[in-house]
Design a protein that fits this description.
The protein contains six helices and nine strands; from the N terminus they run H-E-E-H-H-E-H-E-E-E-H-E-H-E-E. It is of the alpha/beta class and about 190 residues long. Strands 3, 4, 5, 6, 7, 8 and 9 form a seven-stranded mixed β-sheet that branches. The chain has a two-stranded antiparallel ribbon with strand order 1-2.
Length: about 190
Amino acid sequence: MSDLPQLETARHKLREHVLQHSLKTGTFTLKSGRTSNWFLDSKQTACRSDGILLVSDVALAMLPPDIDAIGGLTMGADPVAFGIAAVAATRGRKLRSFSVRKESKNHGVTGRIAGALQPGDRVAIVEDTVTRGTSLFEAVEVVRAFGATPLFITVIVDRGGTCAAMAHEAKITYQPMLTAPDLGYAFGS
């Protein structure tokens, strides 16, 4: 794929990992019901030690310095948020991580937030792959209802190309680590 756009070193290395471990080609039915000739299982990058180090290199270079906590909707955000927070700690940056449950829990620690999020936190919302943005913005609403402020959103790969406008409307900075065009595909294909 020599026609791929040039990327700075960290993003290039992440793209190579995604292409090797996370990209599948064939015929796939997406969550939306559409069919596609490519599919991303970005957890194959986020759940490998070398992959999460690459994700963390890119994410930590992007994250605003005033972010207190990082998380998003379980399951896609979990390895991304937890991995970035752990790698950040080894580099002297303290980030607390959390998950947004799909449903409220009514026993033990109740509600949809699990983890170390605190009211008043400045938050980065993350996800592995995003197409339409629904899980990202579900997490944004739950975090806001909890009393924290989402300031930044990032994903390993933006497949759909619609999140930038949604984030702009929500007044949240959005910067994907990689996009479908970075991988050689059109947005939404």
